[in-house]
Write a structure and sequence with these properties.
Elements lengths: L5 H12 L3 E4 L5 H22 L2 H4 L5 E2 L7 H7 L2 H11 L4 E10 L13 E2 L2 H6 L8 E7 L11 E2 L15 H6 L1 E2 L7 E5 L3 E3 L9 E9 L9 H7 L7 H6 L25
Antiparallel strand pairs: 1-8, 2-3, 3-10, 4-9, 5-8, 5-10, 6-7, 6-9
């Protein structure tokens, strides 16, 4: 994908407004995907060495939060035109990263085991929106491995992005309506930030890894202040495109207003 022509942007809008998700198969180069996968594995080992059993106790085993520090391949992926064009088509040019995670679903892990269950990433923001169908955020899942029913592929409830909660207190509604999304490695799964979804169960002997990049419109406060993270570390390879998605500035560039400061941009009114 070398650009986002009008027809392509329309396809993204239609998918997010309808079923609430869109799969773009094999849009990233295999070498880049392999590099990100290796960086995630190293980061997971480092976190396990540092925190040990405490990660499982707080439900964070298999998660890496500081994806910028994972390595150059991860920062390169963030700057790709695939990410930039999809995000800008869905949310506009002022969109920025709210939260990013490297995620590994290990063998014998998945839905039915805490903390993995059906959820909508930003259900509280969805509840606050006056228009239920308004797309205020998009979750970009980059598949670093093949995603199949056997290794716990992500499942979604089509059309659920306008719901604050499902009809049942347990997961029976989602289990009845959910579908499994299968995809080769290097694919991009776009999901409305209000879409209900969950990982499946990994019944294989290998982990299933993804990179989660959750973007929101520019007037929504991000969950992490990436500008502060960038200022605290040195990333000379951070491109202007990636910096813009982080509400930061590339090395040597003028500093942009922080995403945590008032912008004067109004939110949706209807």
């Amino acid at each position: 994908m070398t650009g986002a022509p009008g027809g392509y942007a329309a396809r993204i809008h239609e998918a997010l407004a309808g079923p609430g998700f869109l799969l773009l198969p094999e849009v990233f180069e295999a070498a880049l995907v392999g590099g990100v996968r290796e960086e995630l594995d190293r980061a997971l080992r480092a976190e396990a060495d540092r925190y040990g059993a405490a990660l499982a106790e707080i439900g964070q085993q298999g998660y890496v939060a500081d994806v910028l520090a994972m390595g150059p391949a991860t920062r390169e992926l963030l700057a790709t035109e695939q990410i930039y064009h999809c995000v800008s088509a869905a949310l506009g040019d002022r969109a920025h990263l709210s939260i990013a995670q490297g995620i590994s679903l290990g063998p014998g892990e998945g839905r039915g085991q805490w903390p993995r269950r059906w959820h909508a990433d930003l259900f509280q923001q969805r509840e606050a929106m006056p228009e239920p169908s308004f797309c205020f955020g998009v979750n970009c899942l980059v598949t670093l491995d093949e995603m199949s029913p056997a290794n716990g592929a992500t499942c979604v409830v089509p059309g659920s992005q306008a719901l604050v909660a499902l009809r049942s207190q347990d997961d029976s509604t989602a289990e009845a309506l959910g579908i499994t999304v299968t995809a080769p490695a290097g694919s991009l799964l776009l999901m409305d930030a209000g879409l209900w979804h969950a990982a499946g169960f990994n019944a294989t002997s290998e982990p299933r890894r993804v990179l989660k990049l959750l973007f929101v419109r520019g007037w929504i406060r991000p969950q992490l202040d990436y500008r502060a993270l960038i200022e605290a570390a040195s990333y000379p390879d951070l491109t202007p495109r990636a910096a813009a998605l982080l509400s930061a500035a590339a090395p040597g560039a003028a500093v942009l207003p922080s995403a945590l400061e008032p912008t004067g941009i109004a939110g949706p009114t209807a």
